[in-house]
């Protein structure tokens, strides 16, 4: 017997009654997720229902099928060359589903070397967010060393924060602190998502400040002798680290859905070491304005 929920007349009535009662949209989504709807599907249903659109949930939007994600207008600026007050970054490639792009000349070689120098003095074993508690924990799937840095660490960090905000047209205060990461031989980060699962208590805990993560910028600080690629397994994409380049990808749409095609990984470093700096961008303000 199938346990896949169907969005039928009973569910429509339930939505109407609870919207009339004044229930929050997130509480309705949480209840549907608890009933085995996929979070993306629950958000899609609610958005269409609030818009007054009559529709039937297709079989392709089953609880564990992520195909319900809707691509709209990307946040990524469409120009072939992005500009900041101190930088011009030509686009090397881009894709639309998922929204991924690689840009050259975002950092100078001297800036890359300085960030590595800053990181080498500070990095410690990397952690991840525990899905239940929201606490930081270490796991075998992530083998790297990292350190968060800000303007108080070095003036260069403030320069990079402003530059990225100008290039990608996002408020500087919506960015998390820059995260410098080092991967030694064997270092990797197995396939994962950067957004926080809203159906998990740990994810909701981290969204209390700044809301959901919506985009990531990975700055490549050195050339890796062998290995250390950034891969997107769902679409067969691999990016080789190239010093001074920035990889951008976004994963949350206007409905609040999260894009499952942005599953990504850092493959094991086979020779040498790999240095990157990551900037995660939130939906709202994460940091106080300077």
From TrEMBL:
InterPro entries: Oxoglu/Fe-dep_dioxygenase_dom, P4HA-like, Pro_4_hyd_alph, Pro_4_hyd_alph_FE2OG_OXY
Cofactor(s) required, per the database record: L-ascorbate
Molecular functions per Gene Ontology: iron ion binding; L-ascorbic acid binding; procollagen-proline 4-dioxygenase activity
A UniProt-annotated Pfam family: 2OG-FeII_Oxy_3
Keyword Oxidoreductase: yes
All residue ranges annotated as the Fe2OG dioxygenase domain in the record: 174-283
Record carries keyword Cell membrane: no
Keywords recorded for this protein, A-Z: Dioxygenase, Iron, Metal-binding, Oxidoreductase, Vitamin C
Stored PROSITE patterns: FE2OG_OXY
Name used for this protein in its record: Fe2OG dioxygenase domain-containing protein
Taxonomic source organism: Caballeronia novacaledonica
